């Protein structure tokens, strides 16, 4: 796309960042708003096996991972906005079916459908950003958009709890419908199509395989997927264990939604700070330093827990450590996406799909494994984060340097 054409399709930076942040937040809202509903769902649909209610979260992630594989290539062929519309239609259909589901099995099927639909906005929004920006400019846009994305985990559980108190747990799915209508409606009205017809790729097997080979053959894409998988593993492992840690280790289960909100708010500034620093320092150094600092912090906190030297401040040590886990995402995910997509603008949809699907599914698998190590303390989670962040910092040594034109 020519510079003039790209500029003609750009909203103001402030509106574009707010719009992309809200579209990204679809996934966070769809997961975190369900957290306070799990006991109610268990009591209503599966009282004999309450742990099965947790599948309401993982089924959504499963659908998201599957859908992510297809939405990008489809958007490369048919345009960005039609695929977002189709994804939103699936998402809304899943929300309506979940609202009416009489059994856990049907609820899980509806959540998978919701996840499939959510993959559209999630992946295509990244492709839209790449259509209009590249290199450090793209990393900066994604970083600022992630500020909005990271605020939603802070407020989503409280929104969910408020809806449950006023209307019952099923009404949360109607809130998802309203959120999708607002975010996608805003995008359709204000954001022009960013992929011109002449730049679209035929939706045929041979061109798709060629794009797939090109995407997976790129060294920075391979390393970005690996490092993002490790980061998502830390995040999903923390999310899966943190409620139990607050309950069994610190006796704060009742106040957990408020502490979780505070963790998200404390970590939120990491993304815009990254957006400021990335122009001057670059993407690769920021990712490497963030992961190295996370490894050192995790080792230090683990050592204090093992030695017993934390005394009466163990809760606050864990609280600050949890904040650092979420802050790492702000200093890494946008940069890693920009590094990987920089040379793949002509197949941005396919590249964003492959990267998102592999990193999300791999991270969810790592997070599930970490969750199984929970022993009533925070130590297994902290040690796991030390290993994953240290491995990520080591992998970043082999990440190719940014091309000069991306600076």
Explained architecture:
By secondary structure, this protein is an all-alpha fold. Helix 2 crosses helix 7. The chain is 79% helix and 0% strand. It has a single domain, classed as Up-down Bundle (Growth Hormone, Chain: A). The longest helix is centred in the middle third of the chain and has 33 residues, at 135-167. The radius of gyration is 21 Å and the shape is globular.
Structural class of the helices, strands and pairings?
Answer: mainly alpha
Kindly give the count of domains. Answer: 1
For this structure, the CATH topology is Growth Hormone, Chain: A
- The beta-strand count equals 0
Tell me briefly what this model is.
The protein has 407 residues and is mainly alpha-helical. It has 16 helices and no strands. The radius of gyration is 21 Å and the shape is globular.
Give structural attributes:
Growth Hormone, Chain: A; disordered N terminus; 407 residues; mainly alpha
Topology:
Elements lengths: L2 H6 L4 H20 L5 H8 L9 H24 L1 H21 L3 H29 L2 H33 L3 H20 L14 H12 L2 H31 L6 H12 L2 H12 L1 H25 L6 H28 L6 H25 L6 H17 L12
């Amino acid at each position: 796309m020519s510079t003039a054409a790209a500029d003609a399709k750009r909203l103001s930076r402030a509106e574009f960042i707010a719009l992309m942040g809200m579209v990204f937040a679809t996934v966070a809202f769809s997961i975190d708003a369900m957290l306070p509903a799990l006991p109610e769902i268990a009591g209503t649909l599966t009282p004999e096996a309450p742990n099965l209610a947790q599948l309401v979260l993982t089924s959504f992630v499963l659908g998201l991972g599957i859908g992510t594989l297809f939405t990008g290539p489809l958007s490369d062929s048919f345009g960005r906005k039609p695929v977002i519309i189709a994804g939103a239609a699936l998402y809304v259909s899943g929300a309506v079916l979940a609202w009416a589901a009489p059994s856990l099995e049907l609820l899980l099927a509806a959540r998978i459908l919701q996840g499939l639909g959510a993959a559209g906005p999630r992946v295509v929004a990244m492709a839209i950003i790449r259509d209009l920006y590249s290199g450090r400019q793209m990393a900066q846009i994604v970083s600022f958009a992630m500020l909005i994305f990271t605020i939603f985990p802070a407020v989503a559980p409280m929104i969910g709890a408020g809806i449950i108190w006023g209307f019952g747990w099923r009404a949360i799915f109607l809130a998802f419908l309203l959120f999708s209508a607002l975010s996608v409606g805003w995008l359709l009205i204000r954001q022009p199509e960013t992929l011109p017809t002449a730049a679209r790729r035929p939706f045929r097997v041979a061109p798709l395989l060629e794009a797939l080979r090109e995407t997976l053959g790129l060294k920075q894409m391979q390393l970005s997927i690996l490092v993002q998988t490790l980061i998502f593993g830390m995040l999903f492992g923390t999310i899966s264990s943190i409620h139990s840690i607050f309950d069994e280790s610190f006796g704060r289960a009742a106040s957990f939604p408020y502490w979780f909100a505070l963790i998200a708010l404390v970590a939120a500034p990491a993304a815009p700070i990254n957006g400021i620093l990335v122009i001057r320092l670059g993407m690769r150094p920021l990712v490497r330093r963030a992961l190295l600092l996370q490894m050192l912090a995790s080792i230090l906190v683990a050592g204090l827990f093992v030695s017993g030297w934390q005394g009466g401040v163990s809760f606050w040590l864990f609280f600050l450590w949890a904040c650092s886990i979420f802050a790492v995402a702000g200093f890494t995910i946008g940069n890693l996406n920009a590094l990987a997509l920089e040379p793949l603008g002509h197949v941005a949809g396919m590249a964003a799909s492959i990267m998102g699907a592999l990193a999300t599914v791999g991270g969810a698998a790592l997070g599930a494994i970490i969750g199984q190590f929970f022993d009533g303390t925070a130590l297994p989670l902290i040690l796991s984060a030390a290993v994953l962040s240290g491995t990520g910092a080591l992998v970043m040594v082999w990440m190719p340097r940014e091309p000069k034109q991306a600076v």
